[in-house]
Specification:
Blueprint lengths: L1 H61 L3 H32 L7 E4 H18 L3 E5 L4 E4 L1 H17 L6 E9 L2 E8 L6 H4 L23 H12 L2 E6 L5 E8 L23 E5 L3 H13 L3 E5 L2 H9 L6 E5 L8 H12 L5 E6 L3 H9 L3 E5 L3 H13 L8
Parallel strand pairs: 2-4, 8-9, 8-10, 10-11, 11-12
Antiparallel strand pairs: 1-3, 4-5, 5-7, 6-7
Helix pairs in contact: 1-2, 1-7, 2-6, 3-4, 4-6, 8-9
């Protein structure tokens, strides 16, 4: 009888545990569905934003009037704001889902800060803010994508809370076997009470009128969670009307620094005459990219699919670089395009994959293949800088 009672209690406990697990999973399911929706939607959201950014860059090249340039600057700021909102929503979704796994490796501090200042330089100039950098020639141990996201958020946040004619400084200081990357501003600052709340989700300080409608208050929450995920430390010093300093502490590595020689220019255009293949299944993005690259002096071939590329190869086409969207539709990817071109040409030419930030696996695949990755929407300044490096200095490999 006792044995039957114990067995009955065991079965009852199992049923109770199963019901509890079912309820937990049912409660989590709406969030999981929302997370999957945000990840899936990010690619579709970024396609028109990517094309819009390229067309704006081309329009800026063709317009010289001061009023028109000012309007373009406002348009670019709006595009950047949309990108930040999409990035923030996606990052929070992925952090909550626990799918972000750091891939630590040596990160070149100079290259990292060059990318950040190139991306945010226009925003600083539009607000008449001086963006200065005191770099460090060395390497830190971190996940390069997450680290860039942390610093981009800190610098853009500093620009947001700094008044016109102010200064934002990115200063690197060595502290023994660590590096402190400090983002300093002489903006509005904050009191002790605010400092304890700014890393919470959806918390925003009072902003200048021009910035009051931008952002969801997620940036510093993302920074805090990424810093803890990576095992770094973030320190804050601030006071009302005296500005703020965020100091990120990272471990240094022993990697040797390689200084890259300046690119040699040809006829005033470093990329003049370079033969490029761009592949994108989205018509709007493909045309925008082709027009922009042509304006830089490149000899551009554009294709919408792997089949088109293979036909061009059969016809005898050849290129010095391939820039391909990863997500091609159907079963083909940008990696299939790159493989087809390199096998046909019998040479390892520089290749870039363009993908969404959601697809960090795409970046890993690119690196494994010895290729380069740019997140969508592509920043023209970043694309041009990387192309000049790859096409005018063939003696140094970034992935070496």
């Amino acid at each position: 009888m006792v044995g039957h009672q114990e067995h009955g209690l065991d079965v009852a406990q199992r049923v109770t545990d199963a019901i509890h697990l079912f309820r937990e999973r049912r409660a989590e399911r709406p969030y999981d569905d929302k997370s999957r929706f945000l990840v899936a939607a990010s690619h579709d959201l970024r396609q028109p934003i990517h094309a819009l950014g390229l067309y704006v860059a081309e329009l800026r090249r063709k317009i010289s009037g001061e009023d028109e340039q000012h309007l373009l600057g406002q348009l670019e700021r709006s595009v950047d704001a949309i990108v930040r909102l999409v990035d923030d929503l996606l990052d929070i979704s992925r952090l909550n889902a626990g799918v972000l796994v750091p891939q630590k490796q040596p990160c070149d501090v100079v290259e990292l800060l060059d990318r950040i200042t190139a991306d945010l330089g226009l925003l600083a100039r539009s607000k008449n803010i001086r963006l200065a950098v005191h770099p460090f020639h060395g390497f830190v141990s971190s996940d390069p994508v997450m680290l860039e996201r942390i610093l981009m958020n800190l610098v853009s946040n500093a620009l947001r809370y700094t008044q016109p004619n102010g200064t934002v400084l990115i200063a690197c200081r060595r502290r023994g076997d660590e590096l402190s990357i400090e983002v300093r501003d002489n903006g509005i600052g904050m009191d002790k009470g605010c400092q304890t709340r700014i890393f919470d989700e959806f918390v925003q300080l009072k902003q200048p009128a021009a910035e009051s409608q931008q952002g969801l208050g997620l940036g510093l929450s993302i920074v805090d969670r990424l810093v803890r995920l990576l095992g770094h430390r973030l320190e804050l010093q601030s006071a009302p009307d005296e500005g703020s300093t965020f100091a990120l502490r990272l471990s240094l590595t022993g990697h040797e620094v390689v200084f890259k020689p300046a690119a040699q220019k040809t006829n005033g255009l470093p990329l003049a005459g370079k033969k490029l293949l761009i592949v994108d299944s989205d018509d709007l993005a493909r045309v925008a990219m082709a027009k922009m690259l042509s304006s830089w002096g490149c000899d551009v071939s554009a294709a919408s699919s792997l089949d088109v590329v293979q036909q061009r190869l059969i016809e005898g086409a050849g290129w010095e670089m391939v820039i391909s969207e990863y997500q091609m539709g159907g079963n083909a990817t940008g990696l299939d395009v790159i493989q087809a071109v390199q096998q046909h040409l019998g040479a390892h030419i520089p290749c870039m994959l363009i993908g969404t930030r959601a697809g960090t696996d795409v970046e890993k695949l690119a690196r494994l293949g010895g290729h380069y990755f740019l997140p969508k929407p592509v920043k023209p300044a970043k694309l041009r800088s990387m192309m000049q490096f790859l096409l005018t200095d063939q003696t140094i490999m970034l992935n070496g």
